UniProtKB/TrEMBL annotation:
One of its GO terms (molecular function) is sequence-specific DNA binding. Residues 76-180 form the Transposase IS200-like domain. SUPFAM superfamilies: Transposase IS200-like. GO terms for biological process: DNA transposition. It comes from the Bacteria. It comes from Gemmata obscuriglobus. Pfam families: Y1_Tnp. This is Transposase. The lineage of its organism: Bacteria, Pseudomonadati, Planctomycetota, Planctomycetia, Gemmatales. InterPro entries: RAYT_transposase (IPR052715), Transposase_17 (IPR002686), Transposase_17_sf (IPR036515).
């Protein structure tokens, strides 16, 4: 009975909540949200602690915005082991994002970077944002460690998320995600990056049709 209650709680939107690290907003079905999750070694803990100390005087909303801005910039330097540069792991992660598209959520835009992942998606009925992200991270961590022959934490324990306010915000969020490899100096055009939704726009443009990625890895 306790197990069922926990599963039901996770299936429903939780609104604002925290696991003790970062605030999250889980709006449930019909509310698009962006999420960023990263490898465990992608940003040294001492760096984050230093940022938090510097930002203690800032009001809470401004504090989190600035922290996220600094984190995004640091992630783009490609610090850490960069396991996601391994084609096997990048395909694994991208496949996991696709797998339940149309079943648990609608996946709108995504990119798998060397040490982090950005995604824009809308949870469907019965699937909260936290539950979707937990399923992605749990499955890919186990499988990636098997492929790499390693043990230990693969993903950082928390993630950043933000709900989409309107159509303009949706467009800006999708553009930010798809242009991240260009911003990080990894390629010249968004469609050149092999593990992101932007490449399907390029395929569609060349073919004159709508390109839809497969839903299974």
């Amino acid at each position: 009975m306790g197990r069922t209650s926990n599963q039901n709680a996770e299936a429903h939107p939780r609104g604002w909540h925290s696991r003790g690290y970062l605030p999250h907003f889980d709006g449930g079905a019909a509310l698009p949200q962006t999420v960023t999750f990263r490898l465990a070694d992608s940003v040294p803990a001492s760096v984050v602690t230093g940022w938090r100390d510097e930002l203690t005087e800032h009001p809470e909303p401004e504090h989190e915005r600035e922290l996220r801005k600094r984190l995004d910039k640091y992630l783009d330097t490609g610090y850490g082991a960069r396991h996601l540069l391994d084609t096997r792991i990048a395909r694994l992660v991208e496949g996991a994002l696709w797998y339940f598209d149309g079943v648990r959520y609608l996946l709108h835009a995504w990119v798998v970077m060397p040490n982090h992942v950005h995604a824009l998606f809308t949870p469907l009925d019965g699937w909260s944002l936290s539950r979707v992200v937990a399923s992605w991270k749990s499955f890919t961590a186990k499988e990636a460690n098997k492929v790499l022959g390693r043990t230990g934490r693969f993903w950082h324990k928390d993630y950043f998320d933000r709900y989409v306010r309107n159509a303009e915000h949706f467009a800006l969020a999708a553009d930010y995600i798809e242009c991240n490899p260009v911003k990080a100096g990894l390629c010249r055009a968004p469609g050149d990056w092999p593990f992101g939704s932007a490449r399907f726009h390029s395929i569609a443009g060349a073919a004159g049709t709508a390109a839809v990625p497969g839903r299974n890895p």
